[in-house]
Amino acid sequence: MSFNKKWNAWWKTRYFPWLLWGIPAMLSLLAVLAIYIYRTEWSTLTVHDRYAGIKKTAMQVGDYAKARIACERVLEISRNDSYFAARYPEHLFDLAICLLQLKRPEDAKYLIRKVAPFDEVETALSYPPAHLYVAKNKWATARERTPEVVAQVERHLLRAATDAPEMAEAHQLLGELYLSRQDWEAAKRHLLKVADQRGECLLLLALVSQGTNDPEGMRQWNGRAQQYFQQKMDAAASEDGILRMGLARTFLLAENYEKAAETFLTGYKKSGEPGYTGALGAVYAGWMLSRKQKGDATPGELLKLVSEGLGYDNQNETLLMELVRLSELSGETGAEAGKAIRSMVAAGGANGMLHFALGVAALEKNQEAEAGTHFDLAFQASPELPQIANNFAMVLAVGAKPDLARALKVINELLARFPNLAAALDTRGRIHLKLKNYKEAVTDLTAAIPGLGRFTASAHEALAEAYKALNLPELAAEHSALAKPEAAPVKP
Hints:
This protein is mainly α. It has a domain of 94 residues: Serine Threonine Protein Phosphatase 5, Tetratricopeptide repeat (Alpha Horseshoe), CATH 1.25.40. It has 26 helices and no strands. α9 packs antiparallel against α10 and α25 packs antiparallel against α26. The chain is elongated, with a radius of gyration of 34 Å.
């Protein structure tokens, strides 16, 4: 039947009251359909979620230009709709990350300061992940972790952990920070909150127990940490250096140096990563020092550990220093150590650190001329190593025939690369003191003190001399008092 015939048949049999009665139902159906289309395609909620999804996907695949546009769209919605106001800081932080990746650091920093304010009064846009990001970035990029840097990192981590107590990483980092300053109770408090979520914290809790003289607690936590790292390594599809380092640290904490060395050696054989050779050198250095401290090793056994360690890392300062000391012994061990030193010098592979070790040994015997020669050779071979450059500058400044101009040149070059290196600032301050540049000496020595640890008293003594020369007797007297051993603060 054609359409026209159907229409004619309907028209002849139509009943208008039924049609009128059905109009409200039809309109209701159309209204429901319109609302559905609006809610699924054009509502603010849908648009917001759509752009938020685009932003997330684009950031995951590294398309930060697209993610930036999505961030700006979703920020506009969040700014004008109170329903989404809580997510405004999140989108602002994501926009900052996009701008960083798009090489717009100044704009990014401006936004990050808004979502991770240092001032506790500014909390309106405070976003815990942003505080965590700032803390990690400061910790990773600081040339030297001065007290000021540590305080800033701590403050941001505390804001993150307080505003988002479930943020396990913030608690772990706070635990590590407090552990480094030997604040055992604070470290334990934060680590216990997340030990069940982050197995790495088990090892940190073992270190806390060690610091609080709790051997049983240390053994238990260390055992759990060892089990955690071993299980993770067994389940890993490929070599994981972080897990292997954690497992090796559990063996080191238990003073099982042989097992720690075996762990690193296995990792090196599997991956060929050069970082493992340095770790092996450090293990053998610790093993040697442990045997030496216990007094249960002969010089020959110590030399064997030193030789094996240097076979992996011929730049290890501790092992080289011990090799030099062993070479001064009479008998077969001394001869073997001396032969090893001559072989290393001839090979040239470790000249910088080896001459440095020889220079330190000469200084210990008050052989200043010989020490100066070795430090000079060390500096020529490895001028990029901070400890070599710093010691060479100091020897140039305090030797029998000081060369203050060259000493200042060497230390200035070092500080150009490491402007906050406390030891180098201390050395330059003392050089300025000898050059009678008293104001410059005060500036450098004052900046050096927070990072000098057990050498702080000596810096106060030098500052007292500088202030005395500047006719500031009160400040000179204050620093003289601080230079006394009982008054000098000791860095944990």
